[in-house]
Amino acid sequence: xxxxxxxxxxxxxxxxxxxxxxxxxxxxxxxxxxxxxxxxxxxxxxxxxxxxxxxxxxxxxxxxxxxxxxxxxxxxxxxxxxxxxxxxxxxxxxxxxxxxxxxxxxxxxxxxxxxxxxxxxxxxxxxxxxxxxxxxxxxxxxxxxxxxxxxxxxxxxxxxxxxxxxxxxxxxxxxxxxxxxxxxxxxxxxxxxxxxxxxxxxxxxxxxxxxxxxxxxxxxxxxxxxxxxxxxxxxxxxxxxxxxxxxxxxxx
Length: 252
Ligand code: 4FV
What we know:
The protein is α/β, with parallel strands linked by helices. It has helices spanning 14-20, 23-30, 67-79, 100-107, 125-131, 147-158, 168-173, 206-224, 236-249; strands at residues 4-10, 34-40, 53-54, 64-65, 86-97, 112-117, 122-123, 134-137, 191-192, 195-196. Helix content is 37%, strand content 18%. The strands form three sheets. It has a five-stranded parallel beta sheet with strand order 2-1-6-5-8, sandwiched between helices. Residues 91-93, 118-120, 137-139, 141-143, 145-146, 149 line the site of ligand 4FV.
């Protein structure tokens, strides 16, 4: 049984508590399909003020996360899982952009994933040099801390673990599963304030339904994220439909 095993190093474990103790992620932890341990870097400081940051050499604004408590925290994490291999990931704006393919890779990872959450202006470079295997960014913007990014990575990877989502299928079918955006979804009532559900979805003709859904995924991707079409898994039929959509939507 595959499980996602994660250790999170952070100065603010409380930021992670909410999402990890609600709904799907909470159930995944109860089913031992997701194992998340949070470690407070401040527990590995030595001075009575539990100082984890200091001013930058060379002078500039902002504070830098000190190397000592991070190194000590990492050693404690590794000592807590003797014999286990680790993949150490620093969440930072300088990292490779996290996406669905990365989430799939993490969901298949057999090693324990150690997520290091930055805070303040930066982390002492010696942490990156000596301890970090990979750097990941969730997007080109700056967060107050890496915790939110760590939650994004855990959430996106955990839901790809078999058994985490009720109907496994949904993991495959939704956006990005095959590189395309998702098709529209409808539920009861069949008519709401004059807005009708597309007839084909009421037809019971499964062939016609999946053809409509594929066409709608192609249309949504063409209109909203045409960049994805270059890497999507397309059939010859898909390409024919896309050409017709481009003509129809003037997207030539
Ligand atoms: C970030 C991102 C991010 C940088 C300074 C935390 C902040 C602060 N992490 N993707 N974008 N991190 O902005 O992952 O330490």
